[in-house]
Amino acid sequence: MTPILNHVPFAMWGIDLVGKLLKAKASLEYVVVAVDYFSKWVEAMPLKKTGSDSIVRFLWKHVITRFGVPRILVCDNGPQFESEELAQFYEIYIIEHRFSPSIIPSVMVKLRTTPSHATGETPFSLVYGSEAVLPAEAGLPIYRHLRFNE
């Protein structure tokens, strides 16, 4: 994997949708989230629907009016990010639209089981309190497996 470098705050944002979640008040079931690549600043907004009009409204209200027009927006290949409405929005504001590569599970395993330089711990161990059992460890006499029945 090659890191995406950015040296200017709020010039490059990653955006994605989270959901379908349990319905909140006003039938809100989704959250659109944008993260600035430089500062890691997060903006989010709950949504009823995931249409491109909701994405445009979010970008205008939570990104452009607060931080200015970004140069680049990175998102996945979801249909709400590929609409004609968003294409026109990008064209009007001269925003480069990039698609993130589809992340395969093997890449996610590597990211979640690699120790962080900052903490010395893996993301998996911070969340679950123990290390993940990796495929290469299956069937081996590992200490935590040997103590399982105690």
From TrEMBL:
InterPro entries: Integrase_cat-core, Retrovirus_Pol_polyprotein, RNaseH-like_sf, RNaseH_sf. One of its GO terms (biological process) is DNA integration. Residues 5-105 form the Integrase catalytic domain. SUPFAM superfamilies: Ribonuclease H-like. One of its GO terms (molecular function) is nucleic acid binding. This is Integrase catalytic domain-containing protein. It comes from Lithospermum erythrorhizon. The lineage of its organism: Eukaryota, Viridiplantae, Streptophyta, Embryophyta, Tracheophyta.
